[in-house]
Amino acid sequence: MTFAQTYGSASGAELPGARVIAVGGGKGGVGKTFFVANVAAAIAKQGAQVVVVDGDLEGANLHTCLGVRPPRHGLADYVAQREVDLPKLLVDTCVPGLRLIAGTHGNLSDAQPTHEERLRLLARLRELPVHLVLIDLGAGTHDSVMDYFLASDDGIVVLNPEPTSIENAYSFLRAAFYRRMRLAMVSHAVRALVTEAMDQCNERGIRTPLDLLREVQARDPSEGGRFSEAVRRFRPRLVVNEVGTAQDIKLGFGVRSVCRKYFGIDAEYLGYVNHDPAVRESVMARSPVVYAHPNSNAAIYLDRIARKLASETLSSGAVALDLRRT
Ligand SMILES: Nc1ncnc2c1ncn2[C@@H]1O[C@H](COP(=O)(O)OP(=O)(O)O)[C@@H](O)[C@H]1O
Ligand SMILES: [Mg+2]
Question: For residue 13, how far is its CA from the centre of ligand 2 (angstroms)?
């Protein structure tokens, strides 16, 4: 049975709403755009209808990885309300079943969307008549990146085995953790406390998330309960890109255990992708490596992650699928 047969065709009516996955990671150059383009292409190859969104308004280049010329319209036009109909921004890519909302550079005069406007954009993305939407968030930890990361159905952090990337992945996870906690709190005073705790040198002596939990519980037990629940539900996923050694592969487990020890959160190691010269060749050819070099190491590991994501997208207990073939 194919993805469409099990989960509904892309004609719209029978699709229950798209699952939205946001892909971030503190550092530029670690392979976020490459990962989004390729994992989306691999999922589309299995018969799913997929949309990728270039959320990197400063360094928009997702189109290039998918054989699309620099588009004239994109997400910045929707954000600035020059275009109000999101589906009109969808453009075809070189991959059947995979469409793109490009990320044309915003004008400096464009107002930044508010938190509520970002949530509304995510709601519109969920209404697209496709199975899956993947957002390439760009680098950094500013509020807009965090909002999309936290409000999506899933957030994936991409890192590579370089110390700078690992450091930035931790600062990304830390920023996401505290923003999530602040959003989960109802009381203004407790929100302010969370903001204060983000400063590692705060005068209250709150050094770890556990210190913060204790302080929140002491002030307001019901907020303490909400805090613990938000920690429990926060499950970022990790992808290590450009692995070359067995040690590199272990990095994902290492980051996961630090997340558990330090934040008390249960991050998931979704998988890894090899460093592979075929990737650069495919970028030069403006074609996903899963198409240009389907038997390359990178393509094999991307396919593995794609199958995992695609099978989760299907309703639980779904029957045997092409997607799960190994
Ligand atoms: N697995 C890989 N193997 C080899 N080169 C890679 C791999 N992943 C990424 N690269 C190289 O790194 C470059 C930067 O990746 P990119 O996806 O643009 O990073 P980001 O979006 O995080 O800034 C790519 O153009 C590609 O040449
Ligand atoms: Mg990028």
Answer: 33
- Tell whether 218 is covered by a domain: no
Domain interval for residue 141: 3-10+17-159+276-324
Rounded CA separation 120/80 (Å): 13
Q: Is 41 helix (H, G, I), strand (E, B) or coil?
A: helix
* Tens-place pLDDT, residues 273-296: 999 999 999 999 999 999 999 999
Structurally, the chain folds into a number of domains equal to 1
Distances (CA, A) of 61 to 9, 52, 67, 96, 268: 29, 12, 11, 19, 28
Ligand 1 site residues (CB inside 6 A) read 28-34, 241-242, 273, 275-276, 279-280, 283, 298
Q: Is residue 26 part of a domain?
A: yes
Sign of CA dihedral 190, 156, 32, 58: negative
**188 is a domain residue:** no
Ordered strands of the 90-92 beta sheet = 90-92, 98-101, 50-54, 132-136, 19-24, 154-159, 237-243, 268-274
**Domain contains 119:** yes
**Is residue 279 classed exposed, middle or buried when 0-12, 13-18 and 19+ CB atoms within 10 A define those classes?**
buried
| Model pLDDT for residues 85-118, shown as the tens digit of each residue | 999 999 999 999 999 999 877 666 677 788 898 9
Round the CA-based radius of gyration of the chain to a whole number and report it. 20
Q: Whose CA is nearest to atom 16 of ligand 1?
A: 31
pTM: 0.91
Q: Which residue is closest in CA terms to ligand 1's atom 27?
A: 280
